[in-house]
Please model this.
Amino acid sequence: MLACVAGCFFAAMPVRAAVITVSSGTISIDTQGQSVNAIELHLSFDPGKVAVTGVYDGGSIIDFWVEPPSVSNASHTIDLAGIIPGGLTTSDGRIASFTAVPAGPGGIPASFGTVSAKVLLNDGKGTPATVAVVSTPFVPGTQTSSPPVPDITPPDPFVPQIGRDPAVFGGAWFVAFSTTDPQSGINHYEIMEGSDTVWHAAVSPYRLSDQSLSSNIYIRAVDNAGNFRIVELPAAHPRTGAPAADRIAVFIAACAILWIGIFAIVWMWTRRRH
Model:
């Protein structure tokens, strides 16, 4: 049994806080030597001082976005959430970047408030890390977060996955996809199935229209500079034989040829009789 004489004390174990810094045009994180695998952040701003014109994920440490970086000038927030499979330890990891302009006369310093922030440790348990958010005042319009050179490179290659889960779309077949763009960031995705000729805006996971999986699937990732990459997934269960419409067309053509042949024979036989 341990005894403590008067004057003895116990020192609390130091708690390392992951530090998210919001500075002029950039949102970054210092994990303080800890490996983290998920980040969720919601920032607020004063619409009387600043208008955020764009949020970008180019060069982000995030591999897969659950909620891609976005700005709402209605609720006056910047919102994002993403994961880093395998975890990451960094002292200055870029999460996202943004551009902003003065909402008023200009020259008035602005900063962001924190609505909520969550960082999960890469410990296999999803343990929340202690988080501190530091927002450095800046003058809107003076930050430079755009890529230094024009982005002419398409998004990175990616491999979509087809899956089905009772908890997703009621068990219907879906396709999941994600990629990154190191320079300007991903703007959006589009999808096209089978013989469709129209690209449809899509987010992952996407419920497939063709639940028989008999159509090819095309996914287009578009970055913020307009570059794109198209990935094709061959049909898992290709149709055998010609489509119904093609079979009908062949049948009609065969009938027409047959009737032309019969007419020719009758015409020649009639001429010989006369």
Summary: The domain at 17-135 is CATH 2.60.40.680 (Immunoglobulin-like). The radius of gyration is 30 Å.
